[in-house]
Task: inverse folding
């Protein structure tokens, strides 16, 4: 069917461009992996503006239909709908979480020496910050001397907080420094945020699948979890969230509002705005886990959910663990109206965060080196993602469903209902390969046939061999 731009059409012009590209893909005029016309060429061909075409391409990229390659252009994605993870059913009732035993086993496995670490999400391994941080550390010690060995301010070092605030301003969000609290990593930030707005027994909505650190926090705080399915393309299913809100008294939601873990889906800004409006209309607090926001593969970074808040019911949590140095354990909260309670809990938990590490990170950001580092990390992660998906498809065959992440450093595999990923996890550890079994990412024992693999490590022959080893071990995980 022929498609042309209709200026009298009620649809926006950019949506018509989207429809045209999708139609070309459906008719095999554009093939998977093939380069799309450049912004200028497409604009000239369709007699529309370059910004219109750019908006269309960005929406297609956010949906996982096309991918952008730095200094190269846009390409039709190889992933087909039938090969992506399926939509899961929403849990009908909140559940009490009991995951600590399995988490302890997995942590033991992923940190085991000499194992190929496909089970740990450590994206900066693709571009080490060792040299630049060592240089900045020496400079800081020379300038500040013994001051570096003292306790820092309870709520964080002002010079680091100012750098973080500048970055938020670039995203369109003005942050009051008094509402910005430095923490010991994002995990402490999330724990403080949950303790600030919930009490034992409260119901918290989480993503499904969800980062297992959040699930463990909910268990430790005596909360109940209700799981909201995540779309592989663009974040949680808002219709499922609306149903859960109508049936249950949900006190707070903990969602990865930009890049989710483990699916790597990207929630476009318009859907993020709908999410905030939906929750604030009902007085529900959103705790946004934004640790992977800077590791996007889309043309533009997603805006923090706080940008869309009208009632101040959003708490933002993030850290430098995935972008600069995991061992520095420097994270933060933008706490808004919950600032005073957040500070009291922070003081009771850990008094302060490492002054030395905060100082060095402040210099890292102000020097411009951090942004150059981020560009390199994103480039290498995107290259590794394509290599990982290709290697998985070759080793496991087309029957395995694989996510097409729009950022971050992990892929999500569904091996099929006849396989138990926990059995594969134990067999893999015996063979020197660490993976993360899918049940870890659910409060209610879903995803038994799924695994998470990391491509956030230098791509080597050992990595490719490890993927082949996993495929060879697959029969040992068969249950039917």
Result:
């Amino acid at each position: 069917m022929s498609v042309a731009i209709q200026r009298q059409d009620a649809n926006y012009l950019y949506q018509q461009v989207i429809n045209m590209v999708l139609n070309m893909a459906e008719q095999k005029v554009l093939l998977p992996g093939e380069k799309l016309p450049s912004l200028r060429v497409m604009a000239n061909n369709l007699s529309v503006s370059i910004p219109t075409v750019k908006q269309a391409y960005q929406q297609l990229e956010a949906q996982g239909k096309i991918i952008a390659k730095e200094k190269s252009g846009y390409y039709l994605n190889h992933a087909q709908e039938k090969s992506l993870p399926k939509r899961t059913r929403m849990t009908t009732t909140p559940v009490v979480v009991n995951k600590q035993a399995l988490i302890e086993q997995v942590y033991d496995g992923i940190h085991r020496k000499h194992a190929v670490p496909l089970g740990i999400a450590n994206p900066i391994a693709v571009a080490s910050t060792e040299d630049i941080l060592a240089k900045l550390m020496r400079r800081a010690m020379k300038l500040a001397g013994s001051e570096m060995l003292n306790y820092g301010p309870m709520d964080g070092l002002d010079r680091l907080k100012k750098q973080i605030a500048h970055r938020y301003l670039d995203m369109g969000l003005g942050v009051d420094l008094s509402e910005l609290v430095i923490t010991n990593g994002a995990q402490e930030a999330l724990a403080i945020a949950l303790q600030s707005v919930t009490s034992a027994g409260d119901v918290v909505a989480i993503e499904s699948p969800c980062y297992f650190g959040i699930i463990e926090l909910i268990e430790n705080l005596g909360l109940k979890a209700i799981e909201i399915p995540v779309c592989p393309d663009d974040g949680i299913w808002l219709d499922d969230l609306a149903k859960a809100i109508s049936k249950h008294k949900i006190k707070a939601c903990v969602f990865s509002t930009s890049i989710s873990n483990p699916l790597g889906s990207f929630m476009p800004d318009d859907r993020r705005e709908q999410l905030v409006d939906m929750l604030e209309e009902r007085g529900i607090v959103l705790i946004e886990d934004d640790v992977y926001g800077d590791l996007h593969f889309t043309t533009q970074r997603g805006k923090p959910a706080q940008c869309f808040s009208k009632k101040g019911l959003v708490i933002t949590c993030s850290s430098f663990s995935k972008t600069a140095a995991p061992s520095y354990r420097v994270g933060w909260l933008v706490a808004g109206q919950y600032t005073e309670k957040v500070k009291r809990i922070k003081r009771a938990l850990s008094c302060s965060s490492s002054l030395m590490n905060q100082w060095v990170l402040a210099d890292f950001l102000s020097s411009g080196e951090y942004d150059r580092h981020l560009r390199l990390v994103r480039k290498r992660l995107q290259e590794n993602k394509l290599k990982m998906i290709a290697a998985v498809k070759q080793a496991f065959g087309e029957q395995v469903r694989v996510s097409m992440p729009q950022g971050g450093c992990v892929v999500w595999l569904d091996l099929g209902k006849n396989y138990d990923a926990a059995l594969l996890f134990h067999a893999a550890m015996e063979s020197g390969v660490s993976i993360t079994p899918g049940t870890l990412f659910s409060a209610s024992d879903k995803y038994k046939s799924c695994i998470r693999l990391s491509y956030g490590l230098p791509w080597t022959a050992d990595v490719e061999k490890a993927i082949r080893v996993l495929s060879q071990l697959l029969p040992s995980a068969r249950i039917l």
